[in-house]
């Protein structure tokens, strides 16, 4: 066998391996959505119409498969937030509307895929997470990077030091992440549109102060009806 032939076969196997891994990740995502974030490899294999042995031909172990699923979900979050940012670049919008759209995009994904978000955010299936160690499936870093870039652009645009964008982004992502995880377990307490409005109003209160310090005339008041009277539920 010539080296050229061997190299060709190796390249085809590499392509097949990548394609097959993507297919198995698709099936894992389906299984998590149907059976919950604690789904096992047996169930994923059954969903894929194959066996655990076949899955382990393409993934080093269970953690490898689950981390790949986590990255898939992270990519979806990043794509959604990038779309908001791109739309704002193409058609400039005010910071308040941009904040609302970003939160709404994130919560829309979570609402459509609650078990996947439990999987990514809580790492219930990853041994590293149970031990309290960070894992590649943690979605905070890439999401924070996007938000920090957007906030930095906003700060520069009004003549303020963009260095504050990093802690601001970290705080905002942690705030939204914690609230969204609460909402996953208490969906009847607040609708998604209500939660979006509520989180946007709380975050905008602080953001408005930043922009006002730059001499911008912005309204820090929440939208009408966001904070309801105590007896409004009765």
Which structural traits does this protein have?
mainly alpha, globular, 234 residues, 72% helix, 2 domains, Tetracycline Repressor, domain 2, Arc Repressor Mutant, subunit A
Molecular structure report:
The protein is mainly alpha-helical and 234 residues long. The protein has two domains: 9-59, Orthogonal Bundle (Arc Repressor Mutant, subunit A); 71-214, Tetracycline Repressor, domain 2 (Orthogonal Bundle), CATH 1.10.357. The protein contains ten helices and no strands.
Cα distance spanning the termini:
80 Å
Which percent range fits the helix content? over 70%
Count of the separate structural domains: 2
Shape summary: globular
Rg calc:
22 Å
Range of strand content: under 5%
* CATH H-tier superfamily of the largest domain: Tetracycline Repressor, domain 2
What count of helical segments does DSSP give?
10
Structural class: mainly alpha
H/E order of the elements?
HHHHHHHHHH
Give the CATH architecture of the largest domain: Orthogonal Bundle
- What CATH calls the topology of the largest domain is Tetracycline Repressor, domain 2
Number of DSSP-assigned strands: 0
Q: Which runs of at least 5 residues are low in confidence (pLDDT < 50)?
A: 124-134
Domain HTH tetR-type: 18-77
Keywords: DNA-binding
Organism: Jatrophihabitans endophyticus
Protein name: Transcriptional regulator, TetR family
